[in-house]
Amino acid sequence: MAYLEPAEYMNYGLPTGTTADWITAATALINSYCRRPDLNVIQYVERLRVTAGAQTVWLSYLPLASLGSATTPLVSIEGRYARPRRGEIAREPLSEIALAFALPGQWTAIDPGLVDYDANTGELTLPWNVLGLPYNEVQATYTAGLAAIGDDVKSACAQIVRNAQATPALNASMSRIDTMQMKYFSSSLIDETVQAWLNPYVANRLG
Known about the structure:
single chain, three-stranded antiparallel sheet, 7 strands
């Protein structure tokens, strides 16, 4: 979905005769820079390592946002019990039972309602399970993105188009602007101003 509609072109300094291919290519360039398929609210699945002794993980795509009629952005959460190293689990009855039933290394569903989250930072705080066993890996299915595309993204889209139209190699007489052409010139098209607008939406890690 393009981040600018024809009716908005003049508001963001673009001529009304700007063709849709410029906006489509700029939108694709924004998604590539932000390392995500879309800035609108969509579903993601991530598998994350849990630091030993911690109960928190950080999701990559922000901000977390509910989709449709959902009341939470967390669709489903699974945790894998850590395999203990020597001396990490006390020889207590519950720990011995866990080992006897081969729970370490197994995946278990975690109630998303018991997981505390920060929509802006993507931090998830996992609940302790009844056996007190820690998790060493989490798979999270969640939704994230912008419920409405804001002025920052729309301004970035328009600025990319203006930068592209000012680039001689792109401003040639052509019937269609190719996205790969724009990506080739991305270092000059996504200037410092555009980066400042888009940096809050760049994925926290490559994946």
